[in-house]
Amino acid sequence: MDSIERILVIDDELAPRESIRMVLKDKYRVSTASGAFEGIDMMLQDPYDLIVMDIKMPKMDGITALQEIKKKHPDTEVILLTAYASLETARDAIRFGAFDYLIKPFDKDDVLLVVEKGLKKRRANTGLKLERDILLDRASYLEDQVIKARSNIMTCYEGTVNALILTIDAKDHYTHNHSNRVAKLSSSIAGALGIPAKTIKEIENAAAIHDIGKIGIEENILRKNGKLTLDEYTEIKKHPAIGARIVQSVPFLEDAIPVILHHHERYDGMGYPGGLKGEQIPLSARIVVVADAIDAMMSARPYRDALTMGKVESELRENTDKQFDPEIVDIILKGNVSCCRGGVFPPTNNHQ
Ligand SMILES: [Fe+2]
Fold first, then answer.
1. I want to staple 82 with a disulfide (CB 3.0 to 4.6 A). Which of 72, 90, 116, 210 is the partner?
2. Domains in the chain: ranges and CATH
3. How far is the CA of 248 from the centre of ligand 1 (A)?
């Protein structure tokens, strides 16, 4: 026997069943069944590679059996045996998944030829399936690797961002926790604006390091309690550009550049460093401008107390279209944004 491939011959008549078996037995492992039910049962126990089956059988005919077998074993090839009178039926059976048919009385060489062709197709399908399974395994492995790599990048990103925040906070003690609060508030505003989740996360991360450029500003200017001189103010206005230069060399922080560079632009074009106006200012930066201002107003300074929610609200109204994007102010005042200190705009009687 050359092959380990298994063939099942199903025919209720002994003579054709045995003659088919005799033709194939030297080349393949051949079993026989005397009816469709028995054949289906044998397939359930241990599926065969190919079935040679008579069409005309009592209890269940070959066409019905073909459909039953194909439901559970779509990869098994089926060759039908037909009398000349049933030729049309056999041809029709191709659409139910039969591979081919043999007309009785059949020639030995025809049987071997058609069976070998059927097995060749089966081998090709099995090979393709195996190849597909290997590719799917490979794809799944690569997907896992990408998820792990992404997670490592995120850990690295968060570590870097936290280190940068701590550096800013250490240098400018008024900003203590300011970066994190601006990040949370920016995220909340972005959510209220209906921005997609992935972009919201990018805005939140960028907002957390918006003041990173302060690393490059002298401490005596950053920590000065009194009014800044013109030169000092000119110096401090350099921090957006310094910040953008710092993160430029870190590929995974590149997305934060628009926020870092433009978080002191004003909607009326009177801000810095670019003097950009309205929608020329990236939306992410326009969001951070408002979040930054709200948190600054709600933080106490040596020269003033923290502003009440009511006062913050009136500042927002007063500066809409001037410093702030009116659409962002509008959405905050509609009460759709959680405030950085746990409150919700607009102020209620409980918020003083
Ligand atoms: Fe700033």
1. 90
2. 6-127 (3.40.50.2300), 172-333 (1.10.3210.10)
3. 17
